[in-house]
Amino acid sequence: MRHNNKNNNLGRKSAHRKAMFSNMAASLILHKRIKTTTAKAKALRVFIEPILTKSKEDSTHTRREAFTYLQDKDAVTILFREVSPKITDRPGGYTRILKTGTRFGDAAEMCYIELVDFNEVMLGTGAAETKTTRRSRRGTKKKTEEDASPKTAKAAAGKEAKVKKSAPKAETKAETKAQDIEKKAEEPSSAEDNA
User: Fold this and answer.
1) Residue 179 above 80 pLDDT?
2) Element (H, E) at 173
3) How far apart are CA 37 and CA 109, in angstroms?
4) In angstroms, rounded to a whole number, what is the distance separating the alpha carbons of residues 24 and 35?
5) Which residue, of 26, 72, 115, 131, has the fewest CB within 10 Å?
6) Which residues contact 51 (CB under 8 A, 6 or more apart)?
7) DSSP state of 79
8) SS3 label, residue 36
9) What pTM did the predictor assign?
10) Cβ pair 85, 52 in contact under 8 A
11) Residues 71 and 47 sit within 8 Å (Cβ to Cβ)
12) Is pLDDT larger for residue 105 or for residue 172?
């Protein structure tokens, strides 16, 4: 009987289950998001959240405690260097489960489990989408100076400065070519005069 036994055994013996959770937790810390089944994700959440809570205090003792669960030095380093500073203000709920549907082979419910503070899309701090313009056969509309952003204005000013700097060089090249042609034209005539 399994009275008051809430943990999901996931069809594994205890040693296999602990090793699997250790591996999945280390992967979650390293990659910030992993894809797995919903049952494993729910069980992993119970496993990893106490580790994340302990990581808020950076001491040798808490690092050793985290290592006993994770068994991965790189994961412990990243946990205390990158993850714990971001979660210091959060009072729990460090992970998020996003369901993605069923797996094709066995119809198992699949999901992503991720660290909440590392999803740039949901936080809205990701790179802003740049507007792309469609090309049309009807012609293009020129942007007015008011519509241009400061960055594009600076870029345009930089291009104008480059054109101005390169313009004298082009003029001098053109002048030198013209002078060379004139000299060549004069040389044959002078040679004919000598003959």
Assistant:
1) no
2) helix 150-194
3) 6
4) 10
5) 131
6) 25, 65, 66, 69, 70, 79
7) I
8) strand
9) 0.63
10) no
11) no
12) 105
What are the residue ranges spanned by the domains of the chain? 14-123, 152-195
In the block, residue with structure tokens 């994340």: 52
Any long-range contacts for 121-127 (C-beta under 8 Å, 24+ apart)? 122/96
The angle that helices 60-70 and 14-31 make with each other, rounded to 10 degrees, is 120
Percent of the residues in the chain that have a pLDDT greater than 70, as a whole number? 70
**33 neighbors 112 (Cβ within 8 angstroms):** yes
- Closest of 157, 161, 136, 131 to residue 145, by C-alpha: 157
At residue 184, what is the residue type? K
In CATH terms, the fold of domain 14-123 is 50s Ribosomal Protein L17; Chain: A, (3.90.1030)
DSSP-assigned letter for residue 80: I
Please provide the distance, in angstroms rounded to a whole number, between the alpha carbons at the two ends of the chain: 123
